[in-house]
Every structure is written in C-alpha cells, then in structure tokens.
Amino acid sequence: MEQRLSLVTVGVRDLARATAFYERLGWRRCLAGAEGVAFFQVGGIGLSLYPCADLEGDTGVSLTTEGSPRVSLAYNVRTREEVDSVMAEAEAAGAIVLHRPRQAEWGGYFGHFADPDGLIWEVAWNPAFPIAADGSITMPA
Questions:
Q1: Domain ranges of the chain
Q2: Per residue in 75-123, pLDDT tens?
Q3: Rounded to an integer, what distance in angstroms lies between the CA atom of residue 45 and that of residue 20?
C-alpha cells in the first residue's frame, strides 16, 4: 500500500446545505451531475460530502451516536484487483474489515476497513478518477 490519501469523505446531515456552504467559500464542485454526493478537488486529493445515512450504509458503522466518526479516508487504487490485495494487506496488519470489496452502483469496486482506533478507510477502484504517478487524483469537472 503506497503512502498516500485520495479522498476525505465527510458524512453530512444535509447535503444541499453543506454543498452550498463550500460553494459560498468559492470552492468549485467537480462532477456536478453526480447525485447524492458532492465532490471538490482539494490539491491532489478530493473532498466528498456524503449523507450520513449513506455513509452508514456503505461502512456498516453507526454515525448517529455521540463521538462516532463522520469521516472516512479513501485510498484509491489503479485496478479493481488491487482493491482485494490492499484490503488483505490491511487485514493482515490488524485492520477490522467492515465489509469485503463489492461492486459499486457507480461503476467501481470498493471495500472498507477500520484501523485499530476505529478510523474508517475506503479502498476503491474508480475508473473515473485517474491516479497520477505521484498518487494524486484528478476528478473530472
């Protein structure tokens, strides 16, 4: 597993309100046609705003109790097969697998694990997000 970060996903209570806030800050939304999520390019990584209920559904972790993490970090990979190998590497290192890799409705393939302190990581292959040699991603406009 390369030492890098692809996306930070924040679980939000109101997607429209959260998106409007970042747009008022002058941030430009990427993939504006994407439904149910808002993406912003932040340097060589992305910020995604995602409804808490959907993040709970993806990760299997409750976000409604006080102190629950409402953030997941994403590690994007270059191939579908790499999702499986990174998930296995994380599990061997002591991660708790939250869900095994599965096909995504958006066309990719992804799984989630938690580190020893409960921080949620997504390992994803997203054919729409190219990964540069330095590990940075560029989201389509």
A1: 7-125
A2: 999 999 999 999 999 999 999 999 999 999 888 999 999 987 788 999 9
A3: 20
